[in-house]
């Protein structure tokens, strides 16, 4: 897996987890989904993604969006 796919999988997982926690625990967990969504939106325009930076430093191969 490359960095692109890992970022998408992580973001999708975090959104699903936050929706599940909002349903089971507290609606305030939707703030996590909003944060993830905002981070994805800003990374589309600025190419700054903290997770991608960490994964690159760990030596994972870059995908087409992070070259």
TrEMBL record:
InterPro entries: YgaP-like_TM
Name this protein carries in UniProt: Sulfurtransferase
Highest taxon of the lineage: Bacteria
Keywords assigned by UniProt, alphabetized: Membrane, Transferase, Transmembrane, Transmembrane helix
Chain ranges of the Inner membrane protein YgaP-like transmembrane domain: 2-56
Transmembrane segments: 7-25, 31-55
GO molecular function: transferase activity
